Amino acid sequence: MDFRYSEDDEAFRREFRAWLEANVPRGWRDDAELADPDTKEEFERRRAWHRKLYDAGWMCIHWPKEFGGRGATLMQQFIYHQELDRIKAPPTVNFQGLARVGPTLMQWGTPEQKRRYIPRIPPAEEIWCQGLSEPNHGSDLAAVQTRAVDHGDHFIVNGSKVWTSNAHHADYSTLLCRTDPSAPKHRGLSYLLVDLKSPGVTIRPLIQITGEHGFNQVFYEDVAVPKENLVGKVNEGWMVAITNMMFERTIHGGRTDMMVEVRQIADAARQVTRDGRPAIEDDYVRDAIAAFACEAEALKYASLRQLTRQLRGLPPGPEGSMMKLCTSDLNLRIQKFAMELLGPYAQFEYRASGAIDHGKWSHRMLAARRGTIAAGTNEIQHNIIGERVLGLPKG
């Protein structure tokens, strides 16, 4: 791989970096991790930042220009996220809409659906979530029990979706439903767009061990969904869902720079003592942090390998599953080591007075398992790599 950037790419980086330096809210980096993302106040603060990016032309840059994007190249997208990570910019909102719903509608939506929904996604005028997973079915997304019954000009939907991220903030949800119960599992499915303010929709939070509830369970009881909200053809929704999941796998393929976590655990090691000396001076601690750093660098180059495949026009390789699996596993091990490193201080709760780094390490430890489940469990990723990459027989 050629690690040099073209002059156009460097000019793009300089332009975006200058804008970020001038516009990232002051004080954000000091309290970003301590803010509760579930509150309306924090959500609106992030929406304001999202809108600022949008108004300046720095939102959904990868979208085609005809849909309000910049038509950015793959390298520009990579640089864009590098710069956001570098400056630790505030999170934006409407991730599902930008990364999955919008691109899926560009490919499968009717002209009317494209005109109605896509323009409202980039400015976060309408927030989206996605209804795929169901209770008792884990990562088997085709095991859909939520029913949509044809009633002429509309469907009547009954069922439930679970692990629905940000449903409590969302205006609309995509919904994979079963419209032909007699068809094989991957057939007889349809893909709908549902207004979450419709009568019969109930959203209940799933409280995590951290006390947050980014996930929700959404119940549908005799919910009427107009036929014009069908994406693709009746009983052929699995193909639409596959498109959505391909965007999800691409996004979760690994943009996170794990060296950020490594540097932070090294900083924590300077704040605590081990045998009367700063822990960072202990060989055991230094060896562990060095091992984490080596893995983080290896993941960075694996991510660049995936980027190279895309630049060459090649189909997706195993890097997406490898990045998701290895990044979440490394993060979990770093958080476990942080608990060992902090010793008695690991017992302090999040935001507790006297806690090292405001108790963020205990909070991260409790949250770390989430990454091993989201976007396809690590067990599923092991199966994908074993069966599709290594050619191993199914267990």
- Please summarize the sheet with the most strands: 4 strands, mixed
Q: In CATH, what is the homologous superfamily of the largest domain? A: Butyryl-CoA Dehydrogenase, subunit A, domain 3
Helix content: 40-55%
By CATH reckoning, the class of the largest domain would read Mainly Alpha
Domain count: the total is 3
Q: Return Rg in Å.
A: 22 Å
What does this structure look like?
The structure is a single chain. With 395 residues, this protein is of the alpha+beta class. The protein folds into 3 domains: 7-93, Acyl-CoA dehydrogenase/oxidase, N-terminal domain (Butyryl-Coa Dehydrogenase, subunit A, domain 1, Orthogonal Bundle), CATH 1.10.540.10; 128-235, Butyryl-CoA Dehydrogenase, subunit A, domain 2 (Beta Barrel), CATH 2.40.110; 252-389, Butyryl-CoA Dehydrogenase, subunit A, domain 3. The chain is 45% helix and 14% strand. The chain has helices at residues 7-23, 28-31, 40-55, 74-87, 95-108, 111-117, 237-251, 259-271, 283-311, 319-342, 360-371, 378-389, and strands spanning 128-131, 147-150, 154-161, 172-178, 189-195, 201-206, 215-226, 230-231, 273-274, 277-278. The strands form 3 sheets. Strands 1-4-5-8 form a 4-stranded mixed beta sheet. Strands 2-3-7-6 form a 4-stranded antiparallel beta sheet, with no helix packed on it. A hairpin with an 8-residue loop joins strand 6 and strand 7. Helix 1 (7-23) runs parallel beside helix 4 (74-87), helix 9 runs antiparallel to helix 10 and helix 10 packs antiparallel against helix 11 (360-371).
